[in-house]
Amino acid sequence: MKLIQLLDQHQQPRVGIVNQDRIQLLREVASVYELAQRSEESQQEMTSLAEQFASDTYLSYQQLAQEKRILLPFHHPDPYHTWITGTGLTHLGSASSRSAMHQLEKAQEENKLTDSMKMFQMGIENGHMEGDAPATQPEWFYKGNGLSAVASGQPLPSPAFALDGGEEPEIAGLYMISQRGEPRRIGFALGNEFSDHQMEKINYLYLAHSKLRKCSYGPEILIGDLPNHITGQSKIYRNQQLLWEKDFLTGEAHMSHNLKNLEYHHFKYELFRQPGDVHVHFFGTSVLSFADQVQTQAGDVFEISADCFEHPLTNDLIQEE
């Protein structure tokens, strides 16, 4: 099941079930967070509850998108109780993009791996957690709190001091911490883990700075398991013309770390297990327009889609002054 959060004709937040262009509104719940809370309290599956609350009212997704009434698919009502984080070098194609971006090999001996390649190799050799035994911990970064996220259809701002603003097409895991302090995976969404790749290119130790940017995820949340094999497309439009596009592969079949290992190494910290908190965790990418020498500019439109979601994630880039 795929759910979406939106504003109705009275500008009130609502939840809907996605069925291609038809959005079936739910009664009695105003957010997916509230639905998740009710699910925890009643010990019922979220999909069952959504079906119970389904109404006879339908809206058009295209109309909602045109009128910019789509909200983030899952969020905490207090943005300061949302953690946005991510992991890198997790996909089988990610090392080549990162290596090309950093261009560090020429500065080192021919047989010496960069730190990025070493991290990638560690994931290849031991990135799949089996049973209760943790595997190699991945690269990890912090992006911000709920104030750092914008919904599909909304502008994605790049700060005035930024050197670059580039897309990163990913899958994001969406979580809520239970009242017992246990992480509960609510679902998955398409994500644009927007970053400053020019800053990171100066020195990979600037990674932490380059990640402190806005991001976007949605428009839908997929409730249930993530497919093992996902084919996606990342596109950039400029002046309504296609500037760049590339397919990407994700899902555990194309990852050097499995989700269980990524989740373990994030939630092993008590700080990230505070009851009621929401976590948005980006799982990494293998495709960047920056690696293809694309220089984005204000007005460009990012569009990210995947075969397990009905609708694309779209945002236009704006430059803050």
Verbal overview:
The model is unreliable at 100-109 (pLDDT under 50). The N and C termini lie far apart (41 Å). The chain has 8 helices and 17 strands. With 321 residues, it is of the alpha+beta class. The strands form 3 sheets. A 7-stranded mixed β-sheet has the order 6-5-15-9-10-11-7. It has a 5-stranded antiparallel β-sheet with strand order 4-3-2-1-12.
Q: Strand order across the biggest sheet? A: 6-5-15-9-10-11-7
Rg, Cα atoms, Å: 19 Å
Head-to-tail CA distance between termini: 41 Å
What is the structural class? alpha+beta
Number of helices, where a helix is a run of at least 4 consecutive DSSP H or I residues: 8
Beta-strand share of residues: 25-35%
Brief rundown of the structure:
With 321 residues, the protein is an alpha+beta fold.
Entry keywords:
five-stranded antiparallel beta sheet; globular; single chain; alpha+beta; 32% strand; seven-stranded mixed beta sheet; 8 helices; 321 residues
How is the topology of this model organized?
Blueprint: E1 2-7, E2 13-19, E3 22-26, H1 32-42, H2 46-53, E4 54-60, H3 61-66, E5 82-88, H4 94-102, H5 115-126, E6 139-144, E7 149-150, E8 156-158, E9 169-177, E10 183-192, H6 197-202, H7 207-211, E11 215-217, E12 221-222, E13 230-238, E14 241-250, H8 259-267, E15 278-282, E16 301-306, E17 313-319
Parallel strand pairs: 5-15, 7-11, 8-17
Antiparallel strand pairs: 1-2, 1-12, 2-3, 3-4, 5-6, 9-10, 9-15, 10-11, 13-14, 13-16, 16-17
